[in-house]
Specification:
Blueprint (H helix, E strand, L loop, with lengths): L2 H6 L2 H10 L3 E2 L19 H26 L13 H9 L6 E3 L5 H7 L3 H8 L23 H15 L6 E6 L6 H12 L4 E7 L2 E2 L2 E2 H4 L16 E5 L3 H19 L3 E5 L18 H8 L3 H12 L4 H22 L7 H6 L7 H18 L1
Parallel strand pairs: 1-7, 2-3, 3-4, 4-8, 7-8
Antiparallel strand pairs: 5-6
């Protein structure tokens, strides 16, 4: 390229302008004060209280399940403490008939979507019954493959459009998912066919231990929507009211026949990636302390206390109720049937081929002898 053309086509300025095109949406400051009344949701006192109850329940759940994991009572666990606004408040914005697709870190919103607690615990233990959902539950089992559920969620949204359903599909993913091909394929197809799909990217700063700025050269993840020709917005992922409003706006947009909306939630996990991870190897205490100042429960608590809608006693009641529910679910899990290799084999095919039938017969004989 000649020097004259290099001045005419200013590539450097073009890229620098991307970040400015994606404003940051927030309703509550960390102090609990409203900073954007235009985006403040029109929720009743009862709905605000119920949202707070769910946030507190989620935090208690996170602490108790972490403890159960360390005791060996459950399988591996991906903590969600800190991400309650992007998980719980977003699901709270869905309506009956809407479909939910989350990851291994998103069991709590799946439970609020209708998954029995006992099923969630069976899933942690790798029990087949944990993937057998109630027929009426509009959701996929938690996805372990990063970003793998985005194309599936898009497909459900495509089906809803074909059947003229007045519902949407919402998926939750981590920032690492946006580095996967499934993410690009999913949002591209969703945009091309204008389907009612809301992919939410929970940008907690790390794909396991890899910082976002080492995953991508993009300054925001919301701007990745541009390539698919769909809207992309950045929202305070530690702000329950902002996340709720963002999903409501996206849902209305989708149901008006205008297609998908990508939401990037700027959030943070207070705990490790999973219980086998040591976050002190890749992040500093100062960073954690900075994000703890933005705790979604603290700011929502301050907001509701100012309205006279929440008290310490209410929080303690939710905390105790959650512990009791978990205790009962763990007891129920203990009564689950022991898994057998023959059952795994039977679960592989609708009609088992000859070699699988032979293996089923072989294992059934072994299992019968073990039971005697």
């Amino acid at each position: 390229m000649s020097k004259k053309n290099a001045k005419t086509i200013d590539l450097d300025s073009l890229v620098k302008g991307y970040e400015d095109a994606f404003p940051f949406y927030q309703v509550l400051a960390p102090t609990g004060e409203v900073v954007n009344s235009d985006l403040e949701p029109n929720l009743s006192d009862e709905e605000l209280t119920e949202l707070m109850r769910r946030l507190v329940w989620a935090r208690t759940y996170d602490k108790r399940v972490t403890l159960l994991n360390r005791q060996g009572a459950l399988g591996n666990y991906a903590p969600g403490g800190g991400q309650e606004a992007s998980q719980v408040a977003t699901q709270f914005a869905l309506e009956d008939g809407d479909f939910f697709a989350g990851t291994y870190r998103d069991l709590v919103p799946l439970i609020f979507h209708g998954l029995p607690l006992e099923k969630a615990f069976l899933w942690y233990k790798g029990h087949m019954k944990g993937n057998e959902f109630p027929e009426e539950l509009q959701a996929y089992a938690p996805q372990v493959i990063v970003g793998g559920h985005i194309t599936h969620a898009m497909g459900v949204a495509f089906g809803m459009k074909k059947r003229q359903k007045n519902n949407v599909v919402m998926s939750l993913s981590g920032d690492g998912a946006t580095s996967q091909g499934d993410f690009y394929e999913g949002i591209n197809f969703a945009g091309a066919y204008n389907v009612p799909y809301i992919p939410i990217i929970q940008n907690n700063g790390y794909g396991i231990s890899v910082p976002v700025d080492e995953q991508t050269n993009a300054k925001t993840l919301a701007q990745k929507a541009v390539a698919a020709g769909i809207p992309g917005i950045q929202v305070d992922g530690m702000d329950p009211l902002a996340m709720y409003s963002a999903v409501k706006v996206a849902r209305d947009h989708a149901l008006a026949g205008k297609g998908p909306v990508l939401i990037e939630a700027l959030t943070y996990r207070f705990g490790p990636h999973t219980m086998s991870d040591d976050p002190t190897r890749y992040r500093k205490d100062e960073e954690l302390e900075e994000w703890e100042q933005k705790d979604p429960l603290v700011r929502m608590n301050k907001y509701l206390e100012a309205k006279g809608l929440w008290s310490e006693e209410q929080g303690e009641e939710v905390d105790e109720a959650c512990k009791q529910e978990i205790k009962q679910a763990v007891a129920a899990v203990g009564q689950a049937d022991k898994q057998k290799v023959s059952d795994f084999l039977k679960n592989m095919y609708d009609v088992s081929p000859q070699n699988i039938q032979e293996q089923i017969a072989e294992y059934e004989e072994k299992e019968m002898n073990e039971d005697e």
